[in-house]
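Me: I'm a chemist; would you kindly supply a protein sequence with its structure tokens?

Assistant:
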Amino acid sequence: MAACDGSDVLTVLVPGDPDQNTGGYRYVGRVVSALNDAGHRACVVGVDGRFPYPDATAMAAVDEQLARIADKSVVILDGLTMGGMPEVIERHAERLTLVALVHHPLADETGLEPDQQAWFFRSEQRALAAVRGVVATSDYTAARLADFGVPAKRVRVARPGVDALPTDHSGAASDTDSDSATVELLCVAHLSPRKAQLQLVEALSGLARLPWHCTLIGSDQRHAEYAARVTEAVVSLGLQGRITVAGELDSREVEQAYGRADLFVFPSLYEGYGMAIDEALAAGLPVVTSDGGALTRVAGTPGVRTYPAGDTDALTGVLSELLGQPERLVALRRDLESASTSVQTWERTAEAFVQALAELTGERDATLFDAAWLALREPADHRARDCALTEQLAGWMTRRYQADQDRAPIAIADLGSGGGSNVRYLSPRIGVPQHWTLLDQDAELMGIAEARLASLDVPLKPVIADLKPETLAQYLPMDAEVITASALIDLVSRDWLEALAAAAAERSAAVFVVLSYDGHFNLVPEHPDDGLIRQLVNEHQHGDKGAGAALGPGAPAVLQQLLEAQGYRVSTSRSPWQLEGTDAELQLALMDGWCAAATEQAPAMADRIGGWLNDRRQLVERGELAVHVGHQDLLAFPPGASGG
């Protein structure tokens, strides 16, 4: 690991020993290791004192450590380190480039008294206001930071990765359905009130008649009093031979425990992400988990059963079902195996972390699709959209809502929401109560969308999401009844569309995807090189735009095929741009983009492409050019739904 000196070193400050074996410390350690492996210079520094409610030693240690770091250096402050000392952070905020790493807000910790919670909220809110930006470990935490006054444009997400773990389980339930086979349960988390191991012990105490053994792995020193209560409960309930409180183990011993286990149980009351769940799934273990905080993200995941956080009776019920009916546990494991769950590597996490820092510190433009371009194209988009398909969707939603007057508002998910154009068009035309989840990877655009949509008076949930094929289902709310997108699917891969179709079918959600480029554009009057430009632009469309090799103009047909294979009834319609002289600014921006793509595709033809653009610019300036750009809208209703 790089030495912690020099202005080119990325320093991460954490409380105490950096080698502590918890999810947060493992996240920091693995990210820093991956950064160094990728050629970046990064190091971790542990600071002495009491955290997160800092004592004088902690305040002095952080202040002195920051004072040693060279001006303009980038420093990552773990949320536990900085949240309780805003005055120290403010003292160094102008001289250093400070970025917060937040796993979950300090005020959300379990067991705080109301006055403690209020103090942590005020303190962390002030500290977060002083830093350049925030890297959150989940979209759940990113959204939660809005309550602390952190605008979306100052937040990025870098989800945890997963280590390779053994998937060949030797537990008895792995290869037999016998009612007498002992099921090996595993829980990995430091013993603390938030992790709620006491509830797991209580739940298991009512299942002593069933064949199981449970191992609790995790530090018993971070919350020694609570750990003692867990051990005492095991003894008082007569479960010494059934529950092993193993304490903190080294990585090899933890791997061996994963290999022996049949079922992973995670009773945590609240998580900012929940790395343990991903690690268990990567190890091939089915999971029983609460839905506390960000753990809602795994609801509906193959191989996972969830229950309401804090509900010990519900936990007992789920465990009773799986332990008392071994075929249920076998089926859960088979669901996981057949799903071929894809997990993120730590290398990918490090890449996301570097990108987040570059955007937050201003080293590169955060906006992937320029906000000015999206605003410029919006009037043409709205004019082009097919009104009949919109009316069909509105009618379907109205009938669905009126069928149950006591139901919640219609839940709509907007993929690649950009500046919010799709919401602005559809929301007034739906005519029933509605709730939107906005999903986009660009936090700056999300902030713009929130501001522009404020006047609609429609509930919105912004989610900063890295929309990859393997994560799409995690970000889409399970209650989504409509999934929509505008000017998006021609930029994504077949794998991405397969994930979309599968997620829509799982939710029985309608799909409304509009303004997908169909590969055709014509200009009047014609030019001899129009065909060349069109050919190069369409070739460029198939490049990787961040979601795999893009399908380009072929995307609508592929999505239609995939949805029909899921039993959907699909309708399509043309939605072309018709740009006349009054659209001169959009015409020029559009042709500039075409020529940039064409030149990237064929650099040797740069002069010829530039000549074409000059000729076209002259016509635009005289108001004599018309541009037709083909798009397609697609509306799909799930099996059994009546459209029209």
